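Ticket #4471: structure output looks truncated?

Reporter: J.K.
Steps to reproduce: submitted the chain below (458 residues) through the standard prediction queue, then opened the result file.
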Amino acid sequence: MTISTHMASLLRNPEQGYILVAGLGVSGVSIARFLKSKGLDVVATDSNPSRTEQAEELAALGIRCEIGSHTAETFENAALVVTSPGIPLDMEYFSLARAKGVVVTGELDIFSVFLKQPLVAVTGTNGKTTVTTLISEMLKASGLKVFTGGNIGTPLVDYLWSGDTAHAVVAEVSSFQLDSAVDFMPDVGVLLNIAEDHLDRYPDFDAYADSKWSLFSNHSHSCVAVVNSGITDLGVRTSSLNSRVMTFGPEGEGACHNAAIGSDAVILSTEAGDYRLDLSAARLKGAHNRENLAAAALAALAAGATIEGIETVVAGFSGLPHRTQYVATVNGADYYNDSKGTNPHAVMGALKGFDRVVLILGGRSKQTDFSCLIPLVKERVKAVIALGEAKEEIEAALAGATRITTADSMAGAVTTAAKIGEPGDIVLLSPGCASFDMYKSYGHRGNDFMDLVNRLGQ
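Returned output as attached by the reporter:
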């Protein structure tokens, strides 16, 4: 039975049982509220005892809440369990529910059941938020009304609440969200890249890659899959897809991509013929951003954008906060905030845009391998300042590649960078790690870095 069929049955006969929403974060609260508004019996649970405010809000709507702990009976007796992406799917209470025949799903499936408009979904290790935003802006510049949400910050279910009717929905989706999806099927799916990340949650890299590729698992022949040609095992992976596959990658002898990327242009192969998308005036710089622009253009075209709308965004889009964001020039050195760079692959993308870098690297490790940075560090980095829980791991991985020093705080790292940095240098915060050893989010970390840099300027 599909989630859609199961949900339709519950909507017809709510007395069949309750839907259990596990996790009372922003998306969990939105889903619980939405399902209750449809006349369904909803129970919510969260093991975090601090979720009292959320529980009170839901209780006022007639939703029974359990916070501070879980109970086996609540999971086992549910008609359906909807989990938040932050909860590992091997949690024992999910296993108990499955043993009783209860289906465990996530917000992507619930959203899809009620969505009537075309859906573009973007995933990948790096660049998701930038490309999601680019696609949305390209569609808007083409005269279309768009809702943008998902892992980008706004729960997808908020669109269902809004009462608005968009021409399309553009969603950023994470591997954690995809893991709990059963029937999710975006009309256009975009897979940007796959690099080591979240290996503290997945048993190995292959399992993480499987999660990303599952974006296309329910695709039909009417769906479009936009995929980076550089992804390992591309041919094997795409041969089993039902989608119409469109690739983006570097131009060159023998290359045949729907979006061929050059140094200052992307050649788009469309049904109407080839089109040269000029990137020479684009504000987004670097090889990784050329890939982002190519992927976004392909997906936007597939979703109904015009070439004129795409050109407008390419020329005017200057980037997002905490993603290689210029902060200030202090004593001749330029400071950049790339706090969103939470894995080594993201750091590599940032480094390719600069020379003479003082790199602030570190935080909470995701069990990834920092040694992949060695070639770029040798070529472009004059010093590494290792920070946070991973600093010893970074020192060991990059030993001999460049000068390495350590800091106990972001303030210490910025002070050290200011002493090392000379006119013409780039001081780059691109931590390659999660922020949770010292901060509540990558945004919190990036804001602290920017505040400290601006104090230097004063």
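Triage note (M.O.): checked the attachment and the full token line is present. The first strand starts at residue 19 and ends at 22.
Status: closed, working as intended.
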